[in-house]
Amino acid sequence: MGLEALAMDQKGYRRGSFQSSTSDEDMLEIAGASLDFSVADDDPPLYREMGGFSSYNGGGMNGTSTIMDFLEEPLPGVGTYEDFNTIDWVREKSRDRDRHREITSRSKESTWALIHSVSDAFSGWLLMLLIGLLAGSLAGLIDISAHWMTDLKEGVCLAGFWFNHEHCCWKSNTTFMDRDKCPEWMSWSELILGHGEGAFAYILNYFMYVTWALLFSLLAVLLVKGFAPYACGSGIPEIKTILSGFIIRGYLGKWTLIIKTITLVLAVSSGLSLGKEGPLVHVACCCGNILCHLFTKYRKNEAKRREVLSAAAAAGVSVAFGAPIGGVLFSLEEVSYYFPLKTLWRSFFAALVAAFTLRSINPFGNSRLVLFYVEFHMPWHLLELVPFIILGIFGGLWGAFFIRSNIAWCRRRKTTKLGKYPVLEVFVVTAITAVLAFPNEYTRMSTSELISELFNDCGILDSSKLCEYVNDFNSTKGDDLPDRAAGPGVYTAMWQLALALIMKVFITIFTFGMKVPSGLFIPSMAVGAIAGRLLGVAVEQLAYYHHDWPIFSGWCSQGADCITPGLYAMVGAAACLGGVTRMTVSLVVIMFELTGGLEYIVPLMAAAMTSKWVADAIGREGIYDAHIRLNGYPFLEAKEEFSHKTLAMDVMRPRRNDPPLTVITQDSMTVEDVESIINETTYSGYPVVVSRESQRLVGFVLRRDLIISIENARKKQDGIVSTSIIYFTDHSPPLPPSSPSMLKLRSILDLSPFTVTDQTPMEIVVDIFRKLGLRQCLVTHNGKLLGIITKKDVLKHIAQLANQDPDSILFN
């Protein structure tokens, strides 16, 4: 019995390359993606240098000169990791410290070394600058393209087909009231039939809308399926897992970046109930990972690379919401596993550069970074906290309901034939969405425009149905309009919004998790904004007709403007987003950066906190944690408390009836012995002991390092044969003169593996795994090796204690 491979049985999971084929049955699901190891480009250079080692018998090595001791020249590939393995944070950090110490000591020797030292220190900031520029540019491109393609479903601009509806009408001489009806923009019925009125024109527009929606979504799912199966979904659960130290090769590669950017535009334009905000975090992390390859410091160190990815995630949220500070807090609160102070500053800089780049591109033509930027001017009253808290309760209930329903649906997709037909699923969901969306103007418009409309504070010139109040201009003071009686337009809008709410609530459950890029921020905000606007209008009308009631009389006199329905929409959006993701601090900061309203922090905080409490009371996990668990990723949640009284000896392996632990002795095993251990087991490392009898621990050696070192020594070192003795000590053991050359492998031995005694409480062991990011921990008794605990064992143990299936851990 030995160290369980931290990802999975490597023999079973690396049997070849899964070519992505045209039939839906060939897709193997991981988080709604499929495994495709055929894209070799996404392997980092280190991985390619060693010939892409996937199993012991695989490919050759680009070795170095003749080796007697690997301390002299490190081998390419030694110290790197297999796919679907967890990195060793402790080893990576110590390697970076050694590298830094060496550069610092050399910098005193020559001017060139000093310049190298300065450039090494500066490289992190340069990398952040590049990530910010690239992420901001891609976000601008996605925004502009999605805006144009969304409008393309309804009509085309005669002045130039590349203009969207708004840009098309900028040069028009139409009045402000008719600004959406300029002659340059023609609906499909006007273009084909010559007129836009009547039943036939309506049917033609309806048909074109559904056709474009199906075309966009089918193109998106076929591109994802054919070129980059990892480009689907939001990507945040996988990024959380990668940041915790897991390796998923290709998930942040260049093909994923290209396909995700293109298909995100297509998916958003198709009118499906999804957003671009979550996928923008994935896009920014892809940018970060690709740009890391320009700098040796980040290319060769997995822990350093994860610091960069944390900052890239902040840049992603910064451009998604135009909220740089909210992005940094989102990365800290929601996705990052290890977030030192240096990463905080760099995240701040990357988010700043990304937001500045997007502002320079100005995708919406209004000098704002998002479509739904609003400014409210009226203060809120203390009594309004009651409806705000009601919205918080609604947000928590909706969040808990959504998570349960969506996870149940995704589990069904995984375990039934449904998962074998991703293209058909996308086609059916898009068809249903488009057919239901077109008759209702609030579902026909893009979700971002809908949120913008709902957040809007009605002014004198607003022509929206939501602003069709009965005007009494005698009581108008300046820009502020008093609370007025709702006109017929408002009542129509309320009915349409109620229907839109029901549709959004249910259709989003089936949309999130399909094989297209799909974010959850915007649909959640839309649900909350609709509920908030409905409640806001209800409170406004109540205050108008019953201003003499005791609760209104003190602060809402007749003719005053005291209720802002748009503010209720904003608070509702925050509550629903909080209920689904369980964000708190970052959510409030993102919302006030979106709206520019510092005085509304208290309502937002009240709603966000209430929604979190209510949702937590029903189910502890946010949507991303629930998807991590559904997909069996090896993620040790830092927020969960371990409260059980078990000991290390209860969790370690081998158990009582298991075969003994597979170990390597320090100076008595031959190359053939070690090779047979490697071929017969699938563990990712082996303890090294003084002898089988004493079982006293010397260190720990990784399977991958052993494979590379032995293979290289056979090729490059004279006299190494199957009967050569392998030794891990400083001095070679005494052997008869006729024996073949010996192989010294001390340099690949970890002489300070983490050990605990068999009586150590598991809560301490779990804490060590969380805080140090360990892969494995050895268990001793009176200095003798007893067993081993891996991260997978810890996760299985936690799952068992929570009455879950322990075999669900690690890619079910």
Distance between the termini: 22 Å
Q: What is the strand arrangement across the widest sheet?
A: 5-7-8
How many β-strand runs?
13
Backbone structural class: mainly alpha
User: How many independent structural domains?
Assistant: 3
Average pLDDT works out at 83
The name CATH uses for the topology of the largest domain is: Clc chloride channel
Low-confidence stretches: 1-72
| CATH class category name of the largest domain | Mainly Alpha
For this structure, the quaternary state is single chain
Report the radius of gyration as a whole number of Å: 30 Å
Q: Overall 3D geometry? A: elongated
Strand content is: 5-15%
Number of H/I helices: 30
CATH architecture of the largest domain: Orthogonal Bundle
CATH superfamily of the largest domain: Clc chloride channel
Which bin fits the share of residues in helices?
40-55%
Largest sheet: 3 strands, mixed
In words, what does this structure look like?
The structure is a single chain. This protein is mainly alpha-helical and 812 residues long. The chain folds into three domains: 131-361, Clc chloride channel, CATH 1.10.3080.10; 382-473 and 480-631, Clc chloride channel (Orthogonal Bundle); 648-802, CBS-domain (Roll). The protein contains 30 helices and 13 strands. The strands form five sheets. A three-stranded mixed β-sheet has the order 5-7-8. 50% of the residues are buried. Mean pLDDT is 83; it is low at 1-72. It is found in: Cell membrane; Endosome membrane; Golgi apparatus membrane; Membrane. The chain crosses the membrane at residues 122-142, 199-224, 257-274, 280-296, 308-332, 382-401, 421-438, 493-514, 520-539. GO terms for molecular function: antiporter activity; ATP binding; voltage-gated chloride channel activity. It catalyses: 2 chloride(in) + H(+)(out) = 2 chloride(out) + H(+)(in).
